[in-house]
Design brief:
Helices cover about 45% and strands about 15% of the residues. The protein is of the alpha/beta class.
Length: about 325
């Protein structure tokens, strides 16, 4: 059975079972399943490149120049595609940190194969933001050098930290200009999120920005189209933990207003928030036959139907008395 069309409760059972294995065996087993039956059968960096371009565009929209600046990415994933994209647009370097050592050299190599074979498509993704000399350098690296993950990370100025703790990075004070993530914060417990932002306050330069994309949807709905993007709001915390309380699918179920409050509690000023309202979810809530758990009943239909948002903020710094 193909995982990407698998019913969500079946996928939950598989993930919960694999998560019970010793860590090294668990990671290897889950990767094998994804590689042979799931989303890793074909590797493309386009979605992550698009995320990096959106981040870059927002930074420029708010009057900052990201060229030759230092980025931090929370949540690397399987391939450090976002840091590579930052470099291709002119970043100085990126530290990318992940709780789990998910990166795989063979997937990085496959991504480079894709880039070399789809140059025109990739250039359209970057548009005017691409540094064409750097893009050519990447193509020549892929063409002329035997692939080495160490060489890849070194040449494209990527500091990969995994396993790592984004709430205690050990990086130098004020050593980064932009603190970023893409669809990662929804997988982190609220208290840890606050700690990550406070650590970011230590790391960020005086005029630096936090740029984060958060996916508030039920991630099981990404592959099981029979359920809505807010399906998981029906369950109590204990019920939901039985389905998704594992290392591969933990979702904190925070809503947009909750996340804004966490940013503000970390001493941030929200400079931009662009929430996406899912019409199907809004219709379900308005029809009155979709019951949410008590945890969410005090929230408005418009808040509950937000399934994603960009949030850009800055650290207001200490208050002068």
């Amino acid at each position: 059975m193909v995982l990407r069309v698998m019913r969500w409760k079946t996928k939950s059972r598989i993930q919960n079972t694999i998560s019970l294995l010793p860590s090294s065996l668990s990671y290897a087993t889950y990767y094998w399943i994804q590689r042979h039956f799931g989303g890793l059968r074909k590797v493309s960096p386009i979605r992550r490149f698009e995320a990096a371009v959106s981040t870059w565009r927002l930074i420029k929209e708010l009057g900052h120049d990201p060229t030759n600046k230092v980025f931090l990415e929370v949540g690397t994933g399987r391939v450090p595609a976002v840091p590579l994209a930052y470099w291709l647009m002119g970043a100085k370097s990126t530290a990318t940190i992940d709780l789990n050592p998910y990166m795989r050299a063979e997937l990085v190599a496959d991504s480079l194969d894709y880039i070399s074979g789809n140059k025109d498509e990739l250039l359209k993704v970057f548009g005017s933001f691409v540094d064409k000399s750097r893009f050519e350098y990447l193509l020549n690296f892929h063409k002329n050098a035997a692939f080495s993950i160490d060489a890849f990370l070194r040449l494209f100025q990527i500091n990969y930290i995994a396993p790592g703790n984004a709430a205690d990075t050990k990086l130098i004070d004020q050593s980064i200009d932009f603190h970023t993530s893409y669809t990662v914060f929804e997988h982190i417990p609220p208290g840890t999120l606050n700690a990550i932002l406070e650590e970011g306050n230590r790391l960020i330069s005086d005029d630096g920005l936090f740029v984060h994309r958060i996916d508030y949807s039920d991630h099981f709905s990404h592959s099981d189209k029979e359920i809505s993007a807010i399906n998981f709001l029906r369950f109590t915390d204990s019920e939901w933990n039985r389905y998704a309380g594992n290392r591969y699918m933990y979702m904190n179920r925070l809503r947009h207003d909750d996340c804004l409050a966490i940013f503000e509690s970390a001493g941030h000023e929200i400079l931009l928030a662009r929430p996406d309202v899912d019409q199907r979810s809004l219709n379900l809530l308005r029809q009155g036959n979709f019951q949410v758990d008590d945890r969410f009943k005090a929230k408005s239909e418009s808040v509950l139907s937000i399934t994603g948002s960009w949030i850009v903020s800055r650290n207001k710094g200490p208050v002068n008395v």
